[in-house]
Design brief:
heterodimer, A: mainly alpha, elongated, B: about 75% helix
């Protein structure tokens, strides 16, 4: 009997080692209720954004003077806005701007931050000092204030808002990558790769980068949540998506002026931002737990 | 201690230098000729030439930077194009308003975040813990401008308890001042309470597992004494300094919160400046926030060493 038990645990252990790290992380992630809920809501919003014209029968920018600020009804589930536009249609189409802004601005931050962090952490010395001081300088400016200042100087548009948010989020990724590289580069396998005569860029890309991906993935997910809020904030201020194109932030701005007569205009876009941001935060927290080597 | 202080101060110099370069370079992001942008509607070549000479725009960029930084170091942040007032004066006028808001927000954040964190750590795995974690998630995920609008709807429009907007200085009428700022302060404090709760929870969990807490329990001390006297004191030390570092979050949040509640503070100053293309004010505000942040960072570091005897030496 002892033999069989041993046999099963041995084969289990074998299966465990054969499983790729990504698969194992996924298996651990989907065991968390919060993370699964987050993934489902995100998937739902992505589908809404892609198939928006098929889902809502109304044009999000078509105005109608006979339908100004009508309360929610069977025809217009979320009501209509100050120009007689369907709020549901605008919330659904607004998902496009928010999700795109979240993903693209974090993409920009990764594309600039990770290479700089790799160079700073791996090379050290003067270059590290220079990159680190610039990072400190950027981190000293509060995230949203920096984004607003950048967006103001670049000019108001959704594209510029994405650039402004991406650049403002970059220092976090530089600092994270640098720290991770410094702790990984003293590992034996990196030493071994160096002893085998691999060039520096190859060690950085093939041996170091894959090992710091989990930390980057967690930060990227949480940063998407922050970027979506930032895009909504910039659009609220009129520095993001320009009217009449729908965006949750600019909808909230309009809604504030009609809070007494049409409170429904404020509820739905805000709820949409909240749900998407909450979901990315849930997935980010779940990923952090799932990828934590100490919890294995 | 002195050694550490000297090292930190030396580190600040290059950081401040890069902050100034960063803020100076912002104006070169402007599409086209900055002189034309500053001239606005004015198309008279003589006026444009005068602006170019006044702002040294005809000089090479490094020289322009030297002129600019020389002014900044002597307290000259330029002049607001709109109000024709020195930028520094404008900032000095608006900063106290935001500081009042920030101070109230921090108090609210500590009052909610720390008890919630302690309870969730002590009652780990119970409904209390679950509820506190939900609160934290809610706090981090709610856009503060939406929360502000919803609070105005509830407390000003539906219930009529609080003013929807406006500001009264504390010195003029403290009751009216608190009534006008309590909602925006709660909106700002809420997000920070969530962050504080998470940090308090993990710090408490770590401390509760430590040997000295076990010893205190073994001595037969009541659970209350163990938690309040032994665990909390050690867990909260890093949290207090963390509060200072959340100032960045506060100032970012203040931009939108002041906009929604029409509070004439620092955040509203930068937004108005952005729309009036008053670039000197935008630069001045960013420079001031960065300097405040760096200074508070330093103070937090020093405070951390002062309250933590193990780091003194």
């Amino acid at each position: 009997m002892t033999d069989t038990t041993l046999g099963t645990s041995a084969s289990l252990a074998a299966a465990e080692t054969l499983e790729s790290p990504a698969r194992r992380a996924w298996r651990r992630l989907i065991r968390r209720k919060g993370a699964v809920l987050g993934l489902v809501v995100i998937a739902l919003f992505i589908l809404l954004a892609i198939f928006a014209p098929l889902i809502v029968p109304y044009d999000p920018i078509a105005t109608s003077w006979s339908l100004v600020r009508k309360a929610p009804s069977l025809q217009h589930w979320f009501g209509t806005d100050e120009l007689g536009r369907d709020v549901l249609a605008r919330v659904v189409f607004g998902a496009r701007a928010s999700l795109l802004a979240g993903v693209i601005s974090v993409g920009i931050a990764l594309a600039i931050g990770v290479p700089l962090g790799l160079v700073a952490g791996y090379r050290g010395g003067f270059i590290d000092g220079l990159i680190s001081r610039i990072t400190d300088a950027m981190l000293a400016c509060p995230f949203l204030i920096l984004a607003i200042a950048l967006a103001a100087f670049l000019g108001p548009s959704l594209g510029n808002a994405m650039i402004a948010i991406g650049v403002s989020a970059t220092p976090i990724f530089i600092r994270l990558t640098r720290g991770q590289v410094m702790s990984v580069k003293v590992e034996d396998y990196v030493e071994a790769a160096r002893a085998m005569g691999n060039p520096r860029w190859r060690i950085a890309l093939v041996h170091i980068l894959p090992n710091i991906l989990p930390a980057l993935l967690v930060q990227a997910t949480l940063s998407i949540a922050a970027a979506i809020i930032a895009e909504a904030a910039l659009s609220f201020l009129g520095l993001g998506q320009q009217p009449p194109a729908p965006s949750w932030g600019s909808m909230l701005n309009a809604a504030q002026r009609f809070l007494t007569s049409a409170p429904w205009m404020a509820i739905w876009p805000g709820l949409a931002i909240f749900l998407v941001v909450l979901s990315f935060n849930l997935v980010g927290d779940g990923l952090r737990d799932a990828l934590d080597p100490k919890a294995r | 201690m002195l050694n550490f202080l000297a090292k930190r101060l030396v580190q600040i110099v290059p950081t401040l230098f890069f902050v100034s370069v960063l803020i100076f370079s912002l104006q070169h992001l402007l599409p086209g000729d900055p002189a034309l942008v500053m001239a606005g509607e004015e198309r008279d070549p003589a006026v444009i030439a005068q602006i170019r000479a006044q702002y040294h725009l005809d000089q090479p960029i490094p020289v322009q930077y030297l002129y600019w930084i020389k002014g900044v170091l002597s307290g000259d942040f330029g002049e607001s194009l709109r109000n024709k007032m020195p930028v520094l004066e404008l900032i000095a006028q608006k900063l106290p308003v935001t500081l009042q808001l920030a101070a109230m927000a921090i108090v609210i954040a500590f009052m909610i975040g720390i008890p919630a964190g302690i309870v969730s750590a002590v009652k780990k795995g119970t409904a209390w813990d679950y509820g506190a974690n939900l609160f934290a998630l809610w706090g981090i995920s709610t856009p503060n401008f939406w929360l502000g609008i919803m609070l105005i709807f509830l407390f000003s429009i539906e219930l009529g308890w609080l003013p929807a907007s406006g500001y009264v200085p504390l010195t003029e009428n403290w009751r009216a001042s608190i009534a006008a700022t309590i909602m925006p302060a709660f909106v700002l404090g809420n997000a920070i309470a969530a962050i504080l709760m998470r940090h308090t929870r993990s710090a408490m969990l770590q401390v509760l597992e430590s040997d000295y807490v076990r010893t205190a329990r073994a001595k037969g001390l009541s659970e209350r004494t163990v938690i309040l006297k032994h665990a909390m004191r050690n867990a909260l030390t890093p949290i207090i300094t963390l509060g200072a570092l959340e100032l960045g979050t506060l100032l970012s949040g203040a931009v939108l919160t002041e906009q929604i509640f029409s509070i004439p503070g620092f955040g509203k100053l930068i937004v108005d400046a952005v729309f009036n293309r008053d670039y000197a004010v935008v630069q001045g505000v960013v420079l001031t926030t960065a300097t405040i942040y760096i200074t508070l960072n330093l103070i937090a570091d020093i405070a951390y060493i002062l309250v933590n005897p193990r780091l003194r030496g």
